[in-house]
Known about the structure:
Layout: E1 6-7, E2 10-11, H1 13-37, H2 49-74, H3 80-104, H4 114-125, H5 133-147, H6 158-161, H7 178-197, H8 201-205, H9 215-222, H10 224-245, H11 250-262, H12 268-284, H13 288-292, H14 298-314
Antiparallel strand pairs: 1-2
Amino acid sequence: MTAPEKIRGERIDLLDIARGCALLAMLVYHFTWDLEFFGYLAPGFAQVGGWKLFARIIASSFLILVGVSLVLAHGRGVRWASFRKRLLQIAAGAAAISLATYLFTPQGFVFFGILHLIAVGSLLGLPFLRLPFWLTGLLAVALVAISFSFTTPLTDSRWLAWIGFSEHPPLSNDFVPLFPWFGAILFGIAIAQAIGRFNQWPVLSRLNAPLRALWPLSTLGKHSLLFYLVHQPVSIGIVALVAFLAPPDQTEAFQASCRQTCEKDRDAAFCQSYCGCVQTRLESDKLLDRLLRGQLTEDERQKVGETVNACSFALPASP
């Protein structure tokens, strides 16, 4: 998803290998998300705990590499022809992702995902390329700190949520707002500037020969945008085919997720009755399947909330 990295005509294979590793990690995460989407895993499985941290590490690694690549490709002067070409490719990929997810999951479509951020961040990153590395690093820290200390409902709508200060951001299957994630790009720029400042790029280029055995990863890293656009349709297609041949027991996954959430505050006996009540009523209203697939409309989401409240009040309080 970035420009080629070259030093005096020689590509830095280590960066391609790092990008290839990130792509494989992304494939693992997205495959897990697909299993959840089709009901083989409990709802929310891929959005909590270690999986949530895993996703953030993957996104951070991609964005840091974007910053590094910006310095290598344009640090001594922006090469506008190649920059425009790559920017248009990324923007087209982002638009394709938005369209495909809108058609597939309109309630949670990707309106500002990682490709959108890479496109915007690549433009915004250009003025930072000539700064000293320490100043770029400080600005990155400040940007991230501001992101975690300030929110406002004024940016809750999809038209403004991409900025990143929303108190309640819109639902999206992949939301990577400018704040704090542009900070990762700035960190990448600072890292590359520091490597250049201390003349360490030739050292990294000498690793090409020892790393030659990892050529499958470096080859993958060189075609990252193509892999990004293709891997998810293939992954979803495989899981969808399996789901058609051997449908998952989605009610079991729902019950497990419901009891796990409920038992944080109530005892097991109450949660078993409560979750059974919710499941029965949602099935009666033909909402359970849509809930598990993340396809609820706003009215249906409100109806689910009413069902949850009704079951809470209908059951006797646990001792």
